[in-house]
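User: Quick one: structure for sequence A, then sequence B.

Assistant: Sequence A:
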Amino acid sequence: MSRATAVAVGGSFSTTARRRRELAVPVRCSLSAAGLAAVAPILRDLKMKCDTPLPVLRHVANSMSADMRAGLATNGGSDLKMILSYVDSLPTGNELGLFYALDLGGTNFRVLRVQLGGKEERIIDTEFEQVSIPQELMYGTTEELFDFIVSGLARFVEKESTKFHLAEGSKREIGFTFSFPVKQTSIDSGILIKWTKGFAVSGTAGRDVVVCLNEALVRQGLDIRVSALVNDAVSTLAGAHYWDEDVKVAVILGTGTNACYVESIEAIPKLQGSAYGSGKTIINIEWGAFSTGLPLTEFDREMDSESINPGEQLFEKTISGMYLGEIVRRVLKKMAKASTLFGDSFPEKLSVPFSLSTPHLCTMQQDDSGDLDKVGLILSDTLGVKNSSLGARKTVQDICDTIVKRGSRLAGAGIVGILQKVEQDSIGQIFQKRTVVAMDGGLYEHYPQYRHYLKEAVAELLGVEVFKNVFIEHTKDGSGIGAALLAAANSKYFA
């Protein structure tokens, strides 16, 4: 569900947070003594296995740095693909004209247009639309998926107003943000390695995704040129760097997750001997595949084994929006079967995979009412728990906090791993000057506890003095604008 702008399976943070009812769900006073006795050891074991003290975080950060080096040394050298983006020059601000962006990476795709006015006017105007992808297309064919996407793009182009205009003698160009593992072969081509984030579209793996898009453009009769293929993390970095030259890292934390950073060519052994014009490039880490030193539980392992890609994307399955709610559901399922947490009968909806979404966790974790009414409403409406006790609601809130705290602190450790790798290769270029980490994605944007725990972990690992120079900043819609900017930077017509 990468995407970054889409937040998680089963809902959105904003819509879930707005849900209210006039009448509160009935609350019983407390769990029975027997119920508490059965729940307590499960909760205690969960907390112990999800604990992320400083030594655990440091091990994860160091392992991230080491795996990055191994992935840069040779193809297949680590779980991290360390993919060359072919973006070796970031937007300068001089770009002029009308450019489009198509952003695919989760259960939604976005289309965007932007009118660029150069150094003086910068971004004159933008418009965008978001379209939900029917679930059956996530398991359909390449042609079905890309035809659906291009039909949405075509409708959007048709609505182009007079405040947007093409330069004379040019045609529409688009930056294609494709947020799945791709072996980039040039700035405008790349081979899909595999689908992730719940997608299992047939006939795409091993193909150039730009060719797939171009074929759909031809079928739909839409005359538009794909001038840049980028990952959402790469386009977020480009969009953020357009406004702030101190941006060195970009991280997506939404339905799925990824990160990228600016790297020196001389620090990429697998590139040595290749002709490359620039001294720096953006490396797409594909950090969702990281797995070293992660504190996993029986619930993580069970969820992983039942997924469409068992044994893969373990970091993503621990820290991203698609999976946090599902982990909590599995914990609650075990507790409900082992105790009277939700009364004498077992709520059957607890057995439905992904019925509890991360936006639900966000709403429950922020509930500070005396009776935890919002927790009760979600338990009732989503999981079929009609009469939860206050003790049960507090337990649920505690589980949410445990899973979210682990995920966000591990994400923070991953960020530190990237920063310290670059610092080790260029002493003083990261920790002794202002360095910005651009963040995008609904999970980071809409989940305040997640943001807090992430920054707390980064501060713990770096220490107060170094942390003063590291700025973790939200870049809203950075990937969409960034893709359009990279389309402009690589335009056939722009000079």
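Sequence B:
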Amino acid sequence: MSELNKDVVDLVWGRPSSGVSVSIFRRWAQGFVFSESELTALEQFEGGPCAVIAPVQAFLLKNVLFNRESSNWRQMSEEEQKMALCSTLSEILESVCSSTSTGFCLVTWAKGQSPHTSTQTITQAQSQTQDMPEPASSQPPQEQQPTALAAEELGFEQFHSVLHKRTVMSVAHLREEVLSLYHTWRGCCGVLLFLYSVILTKGIENIRNEIQDTMEPLIDPVHGHGSQSLVNLLITGHAVSNVWDGDRECSGMKLQGIHKQACVGFLTLMESLRYCKVGAFLKSPKFPIWILGSETHLSVFFTKEMSLVGPESPSEQARRVFQSFDPEDNGFIPESLLEDVMKALDLVSEPEYVTLVKSKLDPENLGIILLGPFLLEFFPDQDSGIPDSFPVYHYNGLKQSNHKERVEYVEGTALVLGFEDPMVRTDDTPVKRCLQTKWPYIELLWTTDRSPSLN
């Protein structure tokens, strides 16, 4: 892999003057490990790799909740964990592949270079066990503990010196290979090996063409957080830097956004702070699973309630179209744009009628049209089809962010109320503020004493 190393390293880690921090590399050098307390949940040992682990967890939950026959989605045998994780990793690799003619890349350890023991010990062990039966354990002896251990002695430079790239040309072959590498994904650096596999399958040049600022690495070299481009790559297959729908022009520059409905969604606390605006393709995914972003971490909110992701109602479509003419999210548009909005929604847009609507929606002649009155005028009394209440769950992979440091889903009930005057008011927590960017009048009743943490 040596000829690709520099390009991959530059793209992922940037070119920090003092080299990649030992502590940041160590935080990322973990595998995909299931929680002992929650058999369908992945654990994150330290801050940083949530940019890969949370999207994988979201797709894993999609497969466990909606593609599995067993009704008890929180129970899985070791064999079921293996199948669920590997089919999820394969699915993400398939989604990023730009062209099947170039095949899929898998980055693994070079033969005999697994970091769990020294190369010499592995070679000796192989020569001694070539004619011996497999141990009773289902795991190879050097991979009994698939944790972040051994990363300290491995080191950044050595890690990149012992990698091997292999290419497979068919989806069937890809799935077989990913399954055969189960212990590699679980072991030391499994998360990074998968990330590198995604990058090389997508193509370095393709990623550079999609990232807005090619100088911004996928992993921040100072804090170790994954970029939005990395999160978008794993969720949508495209490494665009923005979360809005479609492309936008800004000072002659084309800024790329999300181009189609995602399988799993994304909501962010940054929107409640008015730093960005997430578009409908991420807010309204195909399955009711959303990655939640805070300033520093990613967690997952999910439910089995498929009506939450049904087709857009006319009023939801109207809200989305109106807001596309209000990029700064002011809650209003200049009245000069009203005709364009009405045309976009296939409403009657004859000039005389538009003038009549303007006078009705802007009686004080302020020159603006508010979203609320606009929706009430054209889409009154529309039932969204969402139930009044439904069970919800929150996942946070960081041990220290969970009660008693056990990674477990926090259960609750969500109430989605009308905009009149909510009857129930629950705490104003970061999780709720994040969810209010999609459901402005959502209330959450958790079964635990404390609300789940976004961080």
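Residues 300 and 355 are 46 Å apart (CA to CA). The longest helix spans residues 78-96.

User: Thanks, that's what I needed.
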